[in-house]
Specification:
The complex is a heterodimer. In chain A, the strands form 2 sheets. In chain A, strands 6-7-8-3-9-10 form a 6-stranded mixed β-sheet, sandwiched between helices. A 4-stranded antiparallel β-sheet of chain A has the order 2-1-4-5, sandwiched between helices. In chain A, helix 4 runs parallel beside helix 6. By secondary structure, chain A is an alpha/beta fold. Chain A is globular, with a radius of gyration of 18 Å. Chain B is mainly alpha-helical. Among the domains of chain B are: 45 residues, no CATH class; 216 residues, MetI-like (MetI-like fold, Orthogonal Bundle). Classes of the chains: A alpha/beta, B mainly alpha.
Chain lengths: 255, 485
């Protein structure tokens, strides 16, 4: 089965998930997930809370373990092998709802830490890369401050830059704007849209339907740990097939 | 509410109000007095009662302090002088006892001709601590080293140190001062060799014993470096430890005697039973503090580990040590341990006590640090994982710096507790400053009956040391405060 799954992975496939199941104790959180992500694809995952969407993307870099099925990221299957896990993690960037910057380090140190210690990049070079990405998320002047001195939106942009410094091939976003004030959501979304334009493979759990319509190739709707519906954004929003999706969309777009 | 003026009538402010001071009763000393001392009838009563208590304490003890006697050869003579100066029935402190016996409070029965050795070790202790306490801060490092140099100049002269060590010590401090200007990071090397140097200075004997013992760590490192490409990190570390232990058990003695035969450099040997007073307390306290922190960190991490054996060993160790009084452990050190060791091994009593005091503090520290680890949000671990940092790097770079920072007040409390607990070694026959030395002084016919003075003297020194630790921890907290909450 593992061999068969590997065979199907072409160069074009970034993530392949087959027959994946996950339980928290007795609770069946993810049920028979099958999904393939092509390189360069931008996928938005939405669904009611508790539907397992965060758990799904956290399985992709093994922050959560799956108990059944296969997850192959960039040609490496996730098993208990720590080497494979570290390899996948260094290729996959992740942005969290609560930013999770390291409060005891400056912004610049936050950005250079992983390149220096994981990628063994010389400090000077790591700092240049860090400044390049800070430039890109438009806050180079904050480099020597501490995370606690920045606004939420700025912190989230730093978190994005921190992931980018590892030169990841895939980016995961776990509700990146849910903890932000409305005025700051836009600056973070703009950063993400720019990233999408450059062809980054992105999986994004979000309720920002405008973002989904603007950049996603595909929208996945999850409920009760299952993929209920997936489609191109236009079709998904204008012509949802399942009753559950219709109900969700009416609630989320209704006001 | 919709009838209010501002909402019904269009309003534009055209003059901005300048800021004014609060009313007189609401600022400065008046406000402070009113709020803190005289806010309610109960508070007024408590304030008056408190002032009364302070007045009573001062008037009751002031004559005793004012009538202090510094020059006398016995308690009886002290009393005569007080009676002569202040009249029959007056009380007065008899500090003459401190003047005569201060050296026992500081050194115990350490031979007077060798006092320069503990004095020198004590000065160098600060030179060794400074690079750890004030890492990379040139100005603070230079100040401390300068003070140490001045201290050594005076105390070594007073202790009439022989010429060669006197000169060597000053050259050493001068070198460290120069190093602090150019490469403050390198000062840590002195911190690393200080334990061996201090051991040699205090206990004496051949200089080769500590050097060859330290070489054991060199053996450990060399074996680790050579073996790690061949057999991997963990087995290489194991092999290194085995090699080092073999070195200490079998190679050390012959190598030392060979080197000693070739180059006999030695100091007069001092036995552990001649140690006493604050020399003993500081040796045990500083060593215990230094080693209990890393052990405590490892135990705290072990307790959180997913590996069953590591976890149960850590939990077992912590719970056992915390469940037993320190005095029990000290008795174990002084009596039981000897039964379990092969006959003929002479395992130094101070060393045994240090080991158990260290374990005792480490168990408490482990729980304190576990609290710090628990205070970190889950997201910090996840972010470190998501960036691909492995366990030890994540701990060292992300988790521990934050967890230890949160735990600083509790860690320093544990250290202060450890230092004060060193007085408990009196129960295994060592001469601690509080009970051991005081008892010896009070057993002298000349000072029989003296009561407050030795305890006040010892208490003041303990207070100074513990208070400095507490102030340092507050400084450290301020320095590391980066969260801007």
């Amino acid at each position: 089965m593992a061999e068969a799954a590997k065979m199907q992975v072409s160069d074009e496939v970034a993530i392949q998930i087959t027959g994946m199941n996950k339980w928290y104790g007795q609770f069946h959180v993810l049920r028979d997930i099958n999904m393939t992500v092509q390189r360069g694809e931008r996928i938005v995952i939405c669904g009611p809370s508790g539907s397992g969407k965060s758990t799904l993307i956290r399985c992709i870099n093994r922050l959560e373990e799956h108990q059944q099925g296969h997850i192959i990221v960039d040609g490496t299957e996730l098993t208990n092998d720590l080497k494979n896990i570290d390899k996948v993690r260094s290729e996959v960037g992740m942005v969290f709802q609560h930013f999770n910057l390291f409060p005891h380090l400056t912004i610049l140190e936050n950005l250079t830490l992983a390149p220096i210690w994981v990628r063994k990049v010389p400090k000077r070079e790591a700092e240049e890369t860090a400044m390049y990405f800070l430039q890109k998320v438009k806050i180079p002047e904050q480099a020597h401050k501490y995370p606690g001195q920045l606004s939420g939106g700025q912190q989230q942009r730093v978190a994005i830059a921190r992931s980018l410094c590892m030169k990841p091939r895939i980016m995961l976003f776990d509700e990146p704007t849910s903890a932000l004030d409305p005025e700051m959501i836009k600056e973070v979304l703009d950063t993400m849209i720019e990233l999408a334009k450059e062809g980054m493979t992105m999986l994004c759990v979000t309720h920002e339907m405008g973002f989904a319509q603007a950049v996603a190739n595909r929208v996945i709707f999850m409920d009760q740990g299952q993929i209920v519906e997936q489609n191109e954004p236009k079709e998904f929003f204008n012509n949802p097939k399942s009753e559950r999706t219709k109900l969700f969309l009416s609630q989320i777009l209704g006001h | 509410m919709s009838e209010t003026h501002a909402e019904t009538v269009t309003f534009v402010r055209d003059t901005m109000l300048p800021p004014v001071l609060p009313p007189v009763g609401e600022r400065g000393a008046v406000k402070w007095l009113r709020e803190n001392l005289f806010s309610t009838p109960l508070n007024i009563a408590l304030t008056v009662a408190g002032l009364g208590a302070i007045w009573w304490l001062v008037t009751a003890s002031l004559p005793w302090w004012l009538n202090s006697v510094w020059n006398a050869s016995s308690l009886g003579e002290c009393r005569q002088i007080v009676a002569a100066n202040a009249g029959e029935g007056a009380t007065g402190a008899c500090w003459a006892m401190i003047r005569e016996r201060w050296h026992q409070f500081l050194f115990g029965f350490y031979p007077p001709a060798q006092w320069w050795r503990p004095v020198l070790s004590f000065g160098l202790l600060f030179a060794a601590l400074a690079p750890v306490l004030f890492a990379g801060q040139k100005r603070n490092l230079s100040i401390i080293l300068g003070v140490v140099a001045a201290y050594l100049l005076v105390t070594l002269y007073l202790a009439s140190a022989p010429g060669l060590p006197f000169v060597l010590a000053l050259v050493l401090i001068g070198g460290l001062l120069a190093l602090a200007q150019m490469m403050p990071g390198r000062l840590l090397w002195f911190t690393l060799i200080y334990p061996a140097l201090c051991f040699w200075l205090l206990w004496g004997g051949s200089i080769w014993s500590p050097i060859v013992a330290m070489a054991g760590f060199g053996v450990l490192y060399a074996v680790f470096r050579l073996a790690s490409p061949l057999i991997g990190l963990a087995p290489a570390a194991g092999a290194g430890i085995v090699a080092a232990v073999l070195w200490w058990l079998y190679a050390e003695a012959p190598v030392v005697s060979a080197l000693h035969g070739a180059f006999p450099i030695f100091l007069q040997s001092i036995n552990s039973d001649q140690f006493g007073g604050f020399l003993l307390a500081i040796v045990i306290g500083v060593t215990g503090i230094t080693f209990s922190l890393p052990i405590g960190i490892l135990l705290a991490l072990g307790r959180q580990s997913d590996m069953l054996i590591v976890k149960s060993l850590s939990v077992g160790f912590i719970e056992f040590i915390r469940g037993v009084p320190l005095i029990t452990l000290l008795f174990t050190a002084s009596l039981l341990l000897q039964y379990f060791l092969p006959p003929g091994t002479n395992f130094d009593i101070i060393l045994r006590v240090i080991i158990l005091v260290t374990f005792f503090a480490a168990a408490y520290l482990a729980e304190v640090i576990r609290g710090g680890l628990a205070a970190l949000p889950r997201g910090q671990y996840e972010a470190a994982d998501a960036l691909g940092l492995d366990y030890w790097r994540a701990q060292r770079l992300i988790i521990l710096p934050q967890a230890l920072k949160v735990s600083i007040p509790a860690i320093v409390s544990t250290f202060i507790g450890l230092f004060k607990d060193t007085t408990l070694v009196a129960f295994v026959g060592l001469m601690d400053p509080l009970k051991g030395v005081t008892q010896i002084v009070r057993a002298d016919i000349a000072w029989k009956g003296i009561y407050w003075e030795p305890y006040i003297f010892v208490g003041v020194i303990f207070f100074l040391i513990c208070f400095s630790m507490s102030r340092y921890s507050m400084y450290l907290e301020r320095k590391l405060k980066t969260d801007h909450r």
